[in-house]
Design goal:
heterodimer, A: about 300 residues, mainly alpha, 9 helices, globular, B: about 210 residues, alpha+beta, Alpha-Beta Plaits, 4-stranded mixed sheet, two-stranded antiparallel sheet, 7 helices, about 20% helix
Chain lengths: ~300, ~210
Amino acid sequence: MNGDVVTTFNVFHEMPLSILIAVYFYMTGLSAGSFILSTMAYGFGMEKFKPIGRVGVVMAVVLLGLAPLNLIAELGQPLRFWYLFPYLNPASPITWGSFLLTLYPINCLIYGYFMFKGRPKLTRAFGLIGIPLALSVHGYTGFILALGKARALWNTALMPTYFLTSAMVSGIALMILVVMVRDRFFMPEKKINRGIVSTLVTMLLITIVFDLFLALSDVLILLTADTEAREAALLLLQGGFRPYFLGVEVGLGAVIPLALLLLPATRRQFKFIAAASVLVMFGILAMRYVVVIGGQTIPLS
Amino acid sequence: MSSSEAGTAIAAGVRYGMVVDLRRCTGCQACSVACKAEMDVPLGVFRTWVKQIEKGEYPFVSVSFLPSLCNQCEQPICLRNCPTRATYQLENGIVVVDPHRCIGCKYCIASCPYSVRYLSPLKKIAEKCEFCRHRLEDGLEPACVNTCPTGALVFGDLRDPDSNVSKVLKRNPVQVLKPDRATFPQVYYLAADSEAMEARGASEGQER
């Protein structure tokens, strides 16, 4: 090629999906993670998870009550949101979401109601029904992006798994913080339950490592797949999204928390566990931002 | 050309398509202007436009054009992803949006590999090139085709072997944009420059 190619005229395209979508993905992820932790005790009967059973379902309901508001605010025609039900399209992942986002919170409410009423059998039943719902409600958001096939960063079969894993990571981190705050400030003993916290820390370590593995696989394959995919990978590794991906998502959100939770000097101290959990939550928020906004910054025309 | 690989074609009837003959395009943007006027396209958005690139070093320079519009795909991802079925395909292959059905979720805009849809800044619904279906119903050609001063836009029925578009397709090597996306575009390009066909992003002064 002799000389550079200069684009002398081409039109600008507004980014279709805003940051509200990233926030929505973040909130459903937190909700699904909290719910699954809650069912460890009340669905699967694992006694050591008992201290987070109730607070887990409360967080799941609150977060999922708020999350869909982001979606409605994102619509060009918010008052037409109900069209999603009568005019549904079974091929569209947004339609799957319309029903999941209705069924899942209802199930959460019933599950929570029986839990607080002290009806263990019914609690268990609705807890077990809720598990596939919680997995679907976050898994489908991965399909939304993966089926938005124009965007190289989205169009990967890894996306639903990547989203589910990051949901568990952020859900566990949230639960650690919630348990610490509750025990420290709102319980008569003012003493943090070390047993449940260390169980959650172990789970957090495992999920962070798996999440990092998925991020690594994703970027490695993108780098070599095709021209657009390579451009997407370079955007995360060298381009404008390097600070959010390498800096916040991988560095602050995974590597530093791993160090804090593994090093003998810090791993037994609640303040470092709390710091690690806060960092993890920011890391996953950055991951949602990188995927949703980063995916749309690469021009298509 | 009428039998698309996608296999959803209806045996009889019209299937509209277009060939953009870049040997004839002068980059005059008359098609963009005609479209704006015909469809009352709001400021800042386009249903069709001519991308223009320059390459080489003086005195060996060249300019290439690429009129861009909806490809009226045989397998439109916008249609598959639309959660309210506001986007649908007419029997003649044209992909259209029902303005009363669209909720403005923008998923179609995000999914389209060609960035030829936009959210109307006025109506807050998705809009796109519909091959001027109202003009077709009256037996007229789309406004861009009608206005093109050099005849670079060849429009017609891909299933009619005697139509201009079929003849041009039969006699010339053609390409489509992003064939790897499995969308089976029905807007074909003749003598297009590969670097003009690549995604290039907005030109200077177009970014907001």
